[in-house]
Amino acid sequence: LSLHNELWTGDQEKYGVLNVTKITENGKKVRKNWTSSWAVLQGSSILFQSTGASWKFGGNQSKPEFTVDLKGASVEWATKEKSSKKNVIELKTPSGTDLLIQTENDNMIKEWYSALCNTMGIPIME
Ligand code: I3S
User: Fold this and answer.
1) Ligand 1 atom 7 nearest Cα
2) How far is the CA of 8 from the centre of ligand 1 (A)?
3) Any idea where the PH domain is (predicted)?
4) Please, what are the averages of pLDDT over each run of 10 residues along the chain (126 residues)?
5) What is the Rg, in whole angstroms, of the alpha carbon atoms belonging to the chain?
6) How far is the CA of 57 from the centre of ligand 1 (A)?
7) 85 CA distance to ligand 1 centroid (A)?
8) Which of 10, 68, 72, 122 sits at a 20 to 30 Å CA gap from 93?
9) Residue 114: which residues within 8 A CB-CB, separation 6 or more?
């Protein structure tokens, strides 16, 4: 049981660098803007903070940051119509904000996929 718990909680918290873009906001389609971001999955939300180098230009300038509530969200591999990139996951939230997340690293994207599925209590399908 303790091993199971360790695996479970271990999978629920994850962080790393991902490419991310919103594709809808409040249900409306928005123009893609792929950005390299630190992504932190914690509890049922995911936080993104741009890795852009704004700190170079003087102290406290804040980097773009946003959090997405994943309660009730769906996670799926994005179709070719959604993006020409490889390793793209589509996240759809009940609030109408849909995101694509992507990394060139095949293993990393699988880890993110599993972690997201675990967070949402979805059985993992390859
Ligand atoms: O789905 P789209 O509109 O073909 O997405 C591409 C565009 O957003 C493009 O930028 P422009 O706003 O200048 O058209 C991006 O550079 C591409 O990366 C987007 O497509 P991919 O297939 O990379 O997600």
Assistant:
1) 32
2) 36
3) 11-121
4) 46 84 96 95 92 58 81 95 98 96 97 92 72
5) 15
6) 28
7) 10
8) 10
9) 11, 124
- Position 7 scores a pLDDT of 47
Interface predicted TM-score of the whole assembly (ipTM), two decimals: 0.89
Tell which one of 32, 83, 88, 90 to mutate to probe ligand 1, the residue whose CB is within 8 A of the most ligand atoms. 32
12 CA to middle of ligand 1, Å?
Answer: 30
Count of all residues that appear for the chain in the document? 126
Map 80-100 to HEC letters.
CCCCCCCCEEEEECCCCCEEE
pLDDT at site 12: 53
What pTM was estimated for this model as a whole?
A: 0.83
Of 106, 111, 114, which is closest to residue 87 (Cα–Cα)?
106
